[in-house]
Amino acid sequence: MRQYLLLDDNLAFAENLAEILRDGGDAATVVTSGDEAVRLARTTRFDVLLTDMRMPGMSGADAVHHLRRVDPGLAAVVITAHPRQDDLETARREGLLAVLPKPVPIPTLVELLSGARRDGLVVLVEDDPALSDNIAELLRGRGFSCVTAASVLDADRILCAQPFAALVDLRVPGGPDGEALRRLRARYPHLPTFVMTAYPDAAPLDGTTGVFSKPFDPGALMEVLETAHAARPTHAS
């Protein structure tokens, strides 16, 4: 049985969604403020947070930030009718499983939640939008959350507390080849890191878990992530 935490100032909407999740055999707890959500997360291990974005007091983006500091393994889904781009971008930098609209498409949500993983956050640094979107969709299909960056500066702005792996293009704007990779290594020294590059001979292999030469087999990439996730330290669960 999974434990879901629903955060929304629209109590009727949240209770209705919680009832749907309970009917599926899972547990769902509803709160209407970010402060209450943080307090609960200190004593209860939730699998997924489902949060509105625009609320009085603590916003959804701030809630994701504070909850991840309490429980870094918590997956997060944003459900909102009125996303403000700055707030949504802040939430994305924390790493999300998905952003869904209101009214939420229930079959889509149920399928998404059925595969959602704790401790499943991947950092993805890739400046090709099509490739980045494709990989992000593949990750989501495996239940992994994703935080994306398209440049060295974007990578510096990533806010996520505890990813379990990183996929990094060797050549992205904002610095010399490998700069985003070097900075991520400095920030997360023990993080399994996989390089994706059209220039494999230039890849800095020291400390790199693996190198995927473009074009590569996406299925093979997903399989190495599955292995990395299974091998993550047990204290992260």
Topology, please?
Blueprint lengths: L2 E5 L3 H13 L3 E5 L2 H8 L6 E4 L8 H11 L4 E6 L4 H10 L3 E4 L4 H10 L5 E5 L3 H13 L3 E5 L2 H5 L8 E5 L9 H9 L5 E5 L12 E4 L4 H13 L7
Helix pairs in contact: 2-3, 3-4
In short:
The protein has 237 residues and is of the alpha/beta class. The chain has helices at 11-23, 34-41, 60-70, 85-94, 106-115, 129-141, 152-156, 179-187, 218-230; strands at residues 3-7, 27-31, 48-51, 75-80, 98-101, 121-125, 145-149, 165-169, 193-197, 210-213. 39% of the residues lie in helices and 20% in strands.
What does this structure look like?
By secondary structure, the protein is an alpha/beta fold. Helix content is 39%, strand content 20%. It has 9 helices and 10 strands. A 5-stranded parallel β-sheet has the order 2-1-3-4-5, sandwiched between helices. β1, α1 and β2 form a beta-alpha-beta unit. The longest helix has 13 residues. The radius of gyration is 18 Å and the shape is elongated. The mean pLDDT is 90.
